Amino acid sequence: MSKPEIPGYTFGERSVPDAPIEMDEFERLKQSVMFSDEDDRYLRMAGEVLDGQTDEILDLWYGFVADHDFLLYYFTDGHGTPNEEYLERVRDRFGQWIRDTCDTPYGRDWLDYQFEIARRHHRTEKNQTDEVDAVPNIDLRYVIGFIYPITATIRTFLENSGYSDADVDKMYHAWFKSVTLQVSIWSYPYTTDDDW
Amino acid sequence: MSKPEIPGYTFGERSVPDAPIEMDEFERLKQSVMFSDEDDRYLRMAGEVLDGQTDEILDLWYGFVADHDFLLYYFTDGHGTPNEEYLERVRDRFGQWIRDTCDTPYGRDWLDYQFEIARRHHRTEKNQTDEVDAVPNIDLRYVIGFIYPITATIRTFLENSGYSDADVDKMYHAWFKSVTLQVSIWSYPYTTDDDW
């Protein structure tokens, strides 16, 4: 699949450092969220279903953030006004994140880019990609908390398809597993190597 | 609700330190997982449904751990054999955790005890409650990863009731929100105050 030109999106590029996670560790992490080859298949199916709905999904998620000052805060300099350009640039990559989440099976490039996303949430690299002057860190508690809205709200969009309830359910669970897996990876920079 | 005598279970006792989380921060965290008063009600309903099934639920979860060496590892001294007494003692508290998860609304005591659970996962306090010689830390990646199995597997047990599909769905979502909320709290000792 060719990758579109999205500012700051560097999946597969040489500028992305290797994630400090071996593939066998990644496999264990997949097992801990019960991720199987079937989930690979259902995520690809989900990718087709979600593809035409990306804007509606992002509208919903961005609406959720906008409705909560303490979440919108991460797009501000800490004193009120959100940075609209920053919001827009992240939005484009967030849409691509939906596609990448569904673009299975996950390989070394995928894992490396997940780790890049981890760094961009954490103070290690936040704001650098978009060269913005915003608060320095997305707090871990909300990175984890976001598992719920990002998972629960996807179901309605998966139902907008000709697929059976059983298939929708399998797509939903594959998505839930992947989101949990990714947040687990994203937590890495927030802790020490020993504790992760 | 009177609390049963479970070794190491100290909910509500003076020995439990205050969580370093204010109630208004806790409220924001609840908002981030879309937790509402309706979830309080559905968790109490779930509590009634799950109450007679605790052993079957724990059999399933313990079976999942036992099937994965890298998870069972946390009940070992790092060199193979799991500590059966440790497993049993944690199991009793895990059963009570199911009840406490459903015992809404969550107050200051609940939050303080969640934080105690956080410390007991992390090297800050792991092994101390049961005075065992096991590996010093439950790695954060699996604490987060566990959100999936602990959530997905509960649904079958919720269906073992006279409730409608719509009610089962609401109990399931309330459970999912609570588990995510709790893991978010449990992540605290793994990071710095500034990053959490």
Topology:
The structure is a homodimer of 196-residue chains.
Chain A lengths: L22 H10 L4 H15 L2 H13 L2 H4 L11 H19 L5 H14 L18 H6 L1 H6 L1 H6 L5 H22 L10
Would you mind describing this structure in some detail?
- 2 copies of one chain form a homodimer.
- The first copy, chain A, has 196 residues and is mainly alpha-helical.
- The first copy, chain A, contains 10 helices and no strands.
- Chain A has helices at residues 23-32, 37-51, 54-66, 69-72, 84-102, 108-121, 140-145, 147-152, 154-159, 165-186.
- In chain A, helix 2 packs across helix 10.
- The longest helix of chain A is centred in the C-terminal third of the chain and has 22 residues, at 165-186.
- Chain A is globular, with a radius of gyration of 16 Å.
- The model of chain A has no long low-confidence stretch (mean pLDDT 96).
Task: Name a few traits of the molecule.
homodimer; 196 residues; mainly alpha; 10 helices
Low-confidence stretches of chain A: none
> What's the overall geometry of chain A?
globular
Please state the CA-atom Rg of chain A, rounded to the nearest Å: 16 Å
Oligomerization: homodimer
- The percent of residues in helical segments of chain A reads 55-70%
Short description:
Two copies of one chain form a homodimer. Chain A has 196 residues and is mainly alpha-helical. Chain A is 59% helix and 0% strand.
